[in-house]
Every structure is written in structure tokens, then in C-alpha cells.
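Preliminary data (for renewal application), magnesium ion complex.
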Amino acid sequence: MTTSDLESSPKRNPLVGLVEGVGNGVLGVFQTVGGLVSLAASVVVWALRPPYRLQNLFAQFDFVGVGSIVLVSLTGIFSGMVFATQSWSAFELFGAESLVGPTVALTVTRELAPVFSALMVTMRACSAMCTEIGTMRVTEQVDALETMAVNPVQYLLVPRVLAGLCMVPLLTMIFDTAGLFGGFFVAVPLKGLSVGTFVLRTQNLLAPADIWEGLSKGAVFGFTVTLIACYRGYNARGGAKGVGQATTRAMVDAALAVFIEDYFMGLLFHG
Amino acid sequence: MSAEQKKPPMISVQDLWKSFGDNHVLTGIDLDIEEGSTCVILGGSGSGKTVLMKHMIGLLKPDRGTVIVDGEDIVPMDDRDLERVRRKFGMVFQGAALFDSMTVYENVSFALREHSNLSEEEIRAKVREKLAIVGLRDIEERYPAELSGGMRKRVGLARAIVLDPKIVLYDEPTTGLDPITTDYVDDMIVTAKAELHVTQVVISHDIASSFKVADKVAFLFKGKIVAEGPSQELRHNPHPDLQHFLQMWFAKGE
Ligand SMILES: Nc1ncnc2c1ncn2[C@@H]1O[C@H](COP(=O)(O)OP(=O)(O)O)[C@@H](O)[C@H]1O
Ligand SMILES: [Mg+2]
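Predicted structure:
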């Protein structure tokens, strides 16, 4: 049997290899999604069961949320400024400069704030999370928790994923504020739009629903990126190298997941 | 065998099978470990010793077979029952597996905080007592990264015995240690048995150590226990793979 395998291998059609590769890739995606869904379910179940380790939870709130405030504020201000500058030069062509305020406000609250907050949390917090949990996995610290009758999903993953779920919406709000401020700064002091026009136009066109859209996206993204970081770390194998690979994959998967979810949630909100 | 029947074994592994994909690691393990005894599982690197030990404490589920701990089959158990059974165990890991974000004090007191309502003073007293048993003092505030390998193993043991378990598992307690520390850890295992009256399972590929601490040695080879018995008997067991393993070891030692 093995000899016939060996004989046939050099003659293999490259197309077969390609199809096989794609097939394995698709299979891998399904495996990952399946693993993520079942881990998400177990995180939810263990989040509801006592004991509630509030200290661990607040430590993660602090790390994921408070620790990202400055980064997210800066990203927000500059995104708002960039967006205001670009839309100003476009609207200027047909004299609609007064629409810069609402344009910036809508784009920031609905899209930029949740997406960029989640990406910043991914880079800053999730990479550290994945490395930490992965290291604990390969050095058997996760097994040690289990032998001490402490559920590692509950002890390690629940506070991290809850922090993502709660803190990314909070960061989204901070980004909203910072982004609007950046837009205001470009439109009013730099380009000379009147304060009244900016505020009034923005107030008229920005609805609470837009804010809610951004916040609910933030919650979903926050849950997803922390879950992916935990999943990759939790399943890491094979020493420091394995942990490094897990972290790289976590970063890529998390960023990709944010954009995919963003598209589908957009459909959900706007048909 | 005497006529009067002995107590049932503390751990009884029966016809245990485990594969990871095509890697058939355990292929029909049978092993009984008597209450209050120290059993050494001997075997080459990668022979599945750690996998076998992880089945005893329910960290891994077998493909087939039974693992009876203190009268209960743990294989079909759910998380909650397993947590109850795991409180009978303490485990010392190959690399100590101390929580590296915590101090020695926090490591050793971890299970007490999780599973008891002791006051801070009682916890401190208990931690001191366990650290004294393993011969350590004045290192409570240090972090694992600041300790030597031997000290880490000892902190690992102190952490494992803090809830007064019935069974202590050691995964390669002497691997990677210098000869003096190895002697010290061997003594520690002998002392733990005498003072704590626990059932102990020790994984090893170090024959000299094994024979020193063991009441019984079981030799794991190609997924099965191919020879077992008291150390002296095992030395003269004719099983060819065991003899080969022993010769390799003693040749290397000389
Ligand atoms: N969680 C796991 N997933 C896949 N393979 C594993 C896992 N744990 C152990 N193995 C494999 O099982 C075999 C035995 O490993 P192990 O029990 O750690 O050996 P040792 O006797 O050195 O302790 C090795 O080939 C190892 O690669
Ligand atoms: Mg091992």
C-alpha cells in the first residue's frame, strides 16, 4: 500500500494538489469556526456559574479598557481629522462643506469607532493575552489549574472575553468623542466653518440609532477578538515557537473577523 | 499472595487505550497502585508516561478503558464530578508549572483560596507548614523566575500538597536536576510518603532514583506495561526490552 502511494506521488496532477490545498484550507476554516463556537458556548456557561472572580475581571477591564484609552483617543482624533480633511475637499467641489460634520459623525460612530477600537485592542491586548495563555498552556500551567480543581475556561478565559465584550463598546464611545473632536478641529478652526453650522448639522443628522449601531458592533467585535486570542492561546502546542505561531494566527484571524462581522452587521442594520 | 484479601487499590487502570491521530500512545495499559504505596512508572522519553499520568487525574479522556480512583470510575465523569475527584490529588509537573505571574506564597496558597474559607492567618500558617515540609523558608515573596530548578520543584510539591491530598503524582521530578538536588528530591518523595501517608505515583526515566523511592516499579514500553514488581525483582526480570533499557542506563552511568 505504501509503495503504491510512493509510486503515484511524483505523477500527481498539480491541479489535484491545488484542489486538495483549497479543500484542506476550507476544512481548516470550518474546524476553527466550530472550535470558536464551542469555546464561546463554554465561556458563556462558565461565566454564569459561581464563583465570580471579580478581582480577575477588574484586572482585565483595566488591562483591556483603561490601558487602551490613550491609544484609542489618539487614533480617534487623527481618524476624525483625516476624514474631515478628505470630505472637505470633496464637498468643497459642490459647496456642501456644511455636511462635513454629519459625514464625519456618521462614519465615525457607525464604522470607524467600533472597527478601529477593536483593532487597537487586538494589537495591544489580544496579542499579550494569546501569548500569556499560550505560555501557560505549553508550560502545563493550564493543566495545573485543572488539577487544582479550577476550571481554566472560567478562571482564564471568562474575565478576558467579558473584558472584550464590555470594554470595546466603552472604547468605541471614547473614539466617537475623539473622532468628532478631530473632525470639528479640522472643519471649524482650520477650514473656517462656523461652530453653529457644524453642531446644528451634526445634531440634525446623527441619530441615537447610529450610536447604538456602533456600540453593538463594538460589543460583538470585542467578544470576537478576545475569544479568538484565547482560543489560539488555549490550543497552542509545542513550546515558545508554537506560542509565537498561535499569536500570529490570532492577530490575523481577529483582524479578519472584525471586517467580516462589520459587513454582516451592516447588512443587519441597513438591510 | 496471602489468603486474607488486601484493600482495593487506590488507583486501578484497566485496558486503557489512547491515540492522538495515528500516534497510538497507550495500547492496553493495566496497572494497580495500592493505597499508601509509591509506584514508579519507568519508560523512555516519549513513551507515553505523561499521557498515562494525565489519564489518572482525568486531564485526558481515553479512547477505551477504565480508570478507577478511590473506588470510582472517573472516565465517564463530567467536569463537576471530576473537580471533586481532583481534590484527592496533588500533581507536581515536569517543569513545575508554577504560575509565573504569582509569587511563591500566592502559588502555594492558590488552592486554599479557591477551595477553603480559611482566614489569611490560617492560610499563612498552612503555607509555612507546607514549605517547611519541602525544606524551604523565606522565599514567599519571590517569583518562580527567581528560583532554581530544584527550588521550583519543591514549591511545586508544596503547592500540590497544600490541600492534604490522598494521592500525589510526580511527573519526572528529577529530570534536569544535578545529582545532589536529585538526591534531595528523592528524599523529599520518601519523606512525603512517610509523613503524609499518601499514595504516590512517580514518572521517571532515571533508574537509580526509581529504585530508591519505589515500592513498585512498572515499565512502560510501546504502549503497554510490560513488566512490574518491586525494584529488586524488576532488576532480574527477563523481559528483553526492560533488560535493554536497564543496560543502556547502567552503561551510560559508568
Ligand atoms: N495533547 C497531545 N496531543 C497530541 N499528541 C500528544 C499530546 N500529548 C502527548 N502527545 C504525544 O504522545 C506521546 C507521548 O508523550 P508523553 O506522554 O509526553 O511522553 P513521555 O513518556 O516522555 O512523558 C508523544 O509522542 C507526544 O507527542
Ligand atoms: Mg513526560
